[in-house]
Amino acid sequence: MLRIAICDRDKRQQTELLGFIANDTEISDDYVTECFSNVRTVQARLKCRDFNFDLLFLGLDVTGKEGLALAAYIREQKVDIDIIFIAENDEFIAEGFRFRAFNFIVKPITYERFCYEMAQYLKERQENQSEYLSVLVQGKEQMVSLNLVEYFTSDARKIGVVTANRKEPLWFYGKMNDLENKISKFGFLRCHQSYLVNIQKITSMTSEQIQTKNGVFPISRKYSISVREVWERHKKVCNTQRMDKDSRNNYGGGHPEIIAADENSTVVITRNFAMGDAKYGIVVGIRGARQNDTFRLYQDEEMIIGRDRKQSQVVLNDSTISRKHCGIRFDGKEQCYYVCDFSSNGTFVGGRQKLENNKWSRVERDTLIQLANDKCSFMLV
Asked: Fewer Cβ close by (within 10 Å): the C or N end of the chain?
């Protein structure tokens, strides 16, 4: 489970980051995301030891005061969380990295830049979470990350380890059988008396040999059956993961379940790996009187937003909003929304396109719709 927190006063920045996260197919773990608009709320959660996240996107306003104070508090409390600062300018870069920031990004953030930074973060996270093997080399202890190991080889009483960043073996004393028992649960295949190969590094396999990027290893008769069984299980897992990734590509990052948070945070989003068509749409209030409110919209239902309680299911007390401002429908078959503008001041899609009056228009999921002067906006998830 990857736990992500977003703390930023800018609700539009929150919404943008939520969309980036939902569509980033490199995030293969299940994840949960919570947004906060108030630094004090985060501090209160920290004091209660109720802020359990792996990564924090921390927004800095032009003064940088509140965000940097929060980062200082996090480090003082020795909270184990990575921080990526999101700032209006580069004025506070030095201070940001003083608080051991993973990175510092200046707005505006593009989707490409977000994906790049997340890829770097996920790579480092995987490496840091790897198991390490402690070995004695010339009397000194060295820690070897098993994630980076391509294979182990034996020569008499010595074992050599070859890693992705070290092509020549690092030799230490040991027995191959003992090493196999110790690390087999971490995905290492014993294919021969002299070789233990990292299954994650295998590119292909035949009945006689294993191929990796940097070598070829024989499969002895003694190990042929066990190697084949483990390899088939590994391929099955990889195929399942690939299908999950394809599903996220086809469905725009999966179908998150959204629930309302408290009055100081925006929403909580959880990705489920039960991929497939969503049975209902979700409309989330992003800005205005209905901020943080969440509405489920089932097939064949129509939700009217407006000022008149008799005509509208979602009522907005704002003079710029028409009595019957707009309607929203969810199409389960097409996995999209249809929105109709009934107003005099207009309904806008993504801040640009003004919908044609009294005509139902198709709107894709993960789209922001804005009413009148953008005092009120909703995300169609």
From this structure: N
